[in-house]
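Reposting from the mailing list since nobody answered there.

I have sequence plus structure tokens for a pair of proteins and want to know whether others read the tokens the same way I do. The first protein:
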Amino acid sequence: MKKVYLYLSTVIVLSTAVVCRVNAAEDAGQPGAFLSYGAGARALGMGGAFVGVADDANAVYWNPAGLGQVDRKEITALYAGLYENTGYGFIGYAHPLSAKSLELRAKSHGTFGVGIVYLNSTGFQMRDEFNYNMGDAGLSETAVMVSYGKVLLGESSGRFLNAGANVKAIKQVINSMSATSYGADAGVLCVVMKNVTIGVSVQNIVAPRIKLLEATDEYPLSVTAGGSCRLFNNNLLIAVDANKTYDRDYKLRAGGEYCLFKTFFLRAGINDMELDCGFGFRHRDYSIDYAFGLNDSWKGHDDLGNTHRIGITIKL
């Protein structure tokens, strides 16, 4: 039976990977694109298929409903060095307000979370209409998210329904110009049967509007549905996400995680224009994770290179 499960899991991931490659679409230049990069080296090593998982402090970013699954205080951080002098990072914190068992969570006060996403890019040369060098310029974008998730229904059998939401403040700075706006997201997460979870995350229900000079960028509505399944005594995690952003083609993400010796994790996945892999170590309340991204050089993006992400998580 285990061989059958492994075979089916492999088929699901590989089939989704093929579909991802066929349907991948480029979204460069979309307002709020920096918020589509991801959070957590663990999730990114799985190709960003995490909306139906969302079981750690990174749920603040992926699906705030998942905060209801977090039963201990937890802090997480990620840093990624991107191309063209660009750095990206995420810091998240989850704080359960009460209850540590599933039977009691539905009666608890839920879990509070906060997250900060930032992107900074420097070294751009400014030129006037006569092509004279006017010095260097830079770009930074920051989002601060305050989240809350709670189990609405819970059973001792392990089935439960979570709901969550967050409000966010976004600031964009381009050289000497800056603007700030606000928005909101929401999500649900449900265990439909033992070890099978589905979730939906809706970003920009309240859409941020960033205005620099006379131009206004409104963040588009984005909906992601995801599912996950745990096999082999929870040692194997398989996850698949489907995303649709307004006025853009849909995207599929798929990935998996396998636990060895209860302390070492192997991960792999595919995310639109990127192949991902990674690993992680867990010792008691400390985890360190690494994810590698192979960018889509076969579609003419050879200069983008590869990306390295490193993250750490601490349970308090």
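The second protein, same order (residues first, tokens after):
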Amino acid sequence: MPQQYWYDDAANREDLLDIITNTSPRETQLFSGLQRSKADSIKHEWLTDTLKTVGVNAFADGVDASYPGTTNPTRLMNYTQIIREGYSITDSEETALKAGFASRVSYEDMKQLMNWKNDAEFALMRASLVCGSGSLARQMRGVKNYINSGTVPLYTNASGVSLTEALLNDRLQDVWNAGGGEVDAIYVPMYLKRKISSFGTNLTKNVAADDKRLVQSIDTYQADAAKLVKLFPHRYITVSGDTNYDIVGIQEDKFRVAIYRSPFTRELAKTGDATNKEAVGEITLEVLNPKAGFWAEKML
């Protein structure tokens, strides 16, 4: 009698786990961590003002007041950016028996909202301002480009320069000197995150219970010009095509995500034997003080 082998038997059922593991990264430190604001128009505006330059202030008895004049507030702006993720599921696919989920449409609703958040994070960090037209999409000005557009740009083209602890402290001091306050969050690619971690002397471990991003211990850096700086490895601060590595530091309460339309999913017109949907939302970046951050690019 011939011997029977497992792989010859068509009656054997496949061994397929009822689980789907998404292997793509989902790290949205800006979108998830910055404070929220509300945008009421596609052109979102806000005001900043400054105090006079400090100096000697002494008056003799009984003299009249002086009237040197005052500065007017300055209006800043950003455009809202529409972010959309379209998807189409055939009716046959939706009816088929699945592993990992019951409904492909419901699964894609969740998946495309994750894609939406990733694209929103990319825009918040990297987008360049575009006012838009009937045929041209509006874009917000992201963190990098808002820092570079400030009245005192805190941008450095550090092409070929190796990141050192002294250089990092210089950038933190630049923000303090410019009147931007104290940096409390640094965003770097993993390579530079490891370099900062190797500094060692001013590195501690902390958890901020009110920060939803800090689900476990995270590195914080302490410096003279910035007492407690959270260090975030960021996937979109340096991407394929960039030259070397960038580092961005901000005082987070001066940067906010302004929501014009919160992200949601909706069904689109049925044009065939399929369900057509999209995840859509509209947001922009609100920067209360463009001096409250630095951007050094092209580092080693």
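Reply #1 (J.P.):
I read it the same way you do. The domain at 29-48+74-299 is CATH 3.90.1690 (phage-related protein like fold).
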